[in-house]
Amino acid sequence: MSGEIESGAVLELKPVGDREIPSDGAHVMSNATVEDDTPRLDYYDEKEDEDDVRWIKSHVQNKCQHHKYMQPLHTRSKLDDKVIGLNPMCTCGNLRSQHESTDVFGEFQFDNDDNQLARFMKTDDVELLPQLLARSQRRWNSPRKLISIVGGDHNILMSNQSKEILRHGFTDIAEKYERNICFVTNGVNTTINRLVGESCKNMNLLTGWNGYNKLTPVIGVVPWSNVPNKDQLIDREGKWQFKYSQIYDKNSMNLETNHTDFFFVDDDNEYRVALEREYSIGILLVIRGGTEAFLFIEEAIRNGLRIVFIMGFGGVADIVAQVLPLTRDGERQSLLKTLIERGTCLGISCCGEELQRIMNAVENIIIHKQSVAVYDLSSDRSQDFGRFLLYQIEESRYAPGTIKHESPNTGDLRIIEEMRDAIVGGKNSVAIELLESGRYDVNYLQDKDNNFGQRMAKLLSSNNYECLDTFFNNGLKGNQFLSLRVLEDCYKAEGVNVHMLEDTWTEVIDSLKGLGYRWPFLKGSAVDDKMINLEHLFVWSVVFRRHEIAMLIWAELDEPVAAALAVNKIQQLIISIKRIKDTEVLNKYEQYSNEFTDLGIEVIDACYENKIAKYNLRRKLRNWKDQSCLIMASETDNKRFISRIACQEYIRSIWWRNDDLRYSKYSVSIQFVFYRIRKSRIDICEIEVREKEGERKREK
Q1: Domain boundary assignment for the chain
Q2: What does the pLDDT look like over 365-404, one tens digit per residue?
Q3: Which terminus of the chain, N or C, has less C-beta within 10 A?
């Protein structure tokens, strides 16, 4: 059976239980090819869809009218005794399993630029949460890290500069971890939630996401009472590809359209606490925040999460930020009492028992200040927000009270040995089968394998692209295995001692330093793992013509545009030093250089379409000695890149002084840029003339 969709294309309907839902493009049985760029769960097959619906109907129940359960489990919190677990028996006298199944679940289709889809479900059973996450993580690749946002209940008045700092900080984190991190918010369309959603969307656009297949999950835990026109979502068979515009209400608080999943609950605090408990690595980010934030803060401390307070917007965050530096108890308590009584930060004055409750909660935070960090958007280091968050996330690995490094069990050891034998023996098919079957969980087992880095070095040095590609497709991140020893082994496989390169490759090293490349193996300097980053491995792959591997590593870089621009310079140096004359080899080098330039252009064009090109052109590149992409393009004389509309508009903006660089933290030297670009502009004009002449000839 088939039905017509709005675009006029024919879409097959598949039976699920007693209903029919549209299948994705992969399952269309028609002979006609249908072009449909709407995101779909392309890697989900029909059986998994059917299984999801059956599981929801049989496991997820509505709460009955009694709303309470016998002998609830408690948090034992000093602040509030919240229920975190539900017993099988309900006060109505029936088992919970006998309650009616949920009648609110399905998939939203938002009316934004790319018609993004988002799964939704109404549920309150926190005991089911691990199973719900496990099923959802088939789409998310099982993220093990968390950023939970508290304080997003209302819009916050903030400057464009502050928004840019936060947005790009979140984008940096999303780029760093991709599907290995999960954002949790209250799901409504407020300032901070929009910044999180837009950041993840931008990252997904720049990395070529395909529906849910390559996605940073953003989960909204939304009070059911806050959902406008919610009656339209009720359907025993679920609502699939449901147009969100049908329930949108301009006079209500609506959902943020870049989230990937929504859980509608009666008690959002209870559910959020339970959700955060599923993650042991991550941060709780508090921006403003009312007194309800204390519940999340105490649970975060107990669970070993780091707590980051964003200062400058009032609320609990500003109270903690102001009293945290004070070491004298009397001085701190006096200021704390004044802030609460006057309502300076919270917006309301408190006294009596409420005053004492808040003071006790803040003092509890002070006691655990080793788990607390404050970020001031007005400080000079505001530009490093992404790096700041990254540091806090990594620090949460070692938070007290959490088990971060368990010993591998017998089953894990057996799988690790199988992978070792496959890699050492060159059995690609065995290694790939272990990964694709899910038996070898990269993000879980690589921490338990003491020799994981050496195995990756073996794949790199043997140019085993096929196996490496499978590792990356199954969640491997370059920074998870890279170390000083791995880099040394890669160079050693080419017969090169990295510690002697500064003598033998003086011209190459000096030229790369001129580009801003940080060569770590300097004479007389100690080197450790902290000094090694993926840019060093990328340069190795380019120098030794590991082109396919270079492409894999490039996709993992923090600063991919800069690296793409550097390729041409590196290859020209190699050609010069080795005095390469062979036409075929030279053509290969040119082909590789053009491919990376194309990648850099694709990224900057995507940035331009999403209005973030200027930031990416001018921001300081920490891995390239604080240069910028625009300067690197001029240094490498990359006319094709400079001719892009994003670069040209930015150059004109500088020329006409529309860009005030005096206060920019990502400043670019105007004189330097125009000195380097003056000749390139002439060549760019020639390129444009030749392109137009070619178009006229083709028309004739």
Answers
A1: 104-398, 482-699
A2: 998 888 899 998 876 555 578 888 888 887 776 555 443 4
A3: C
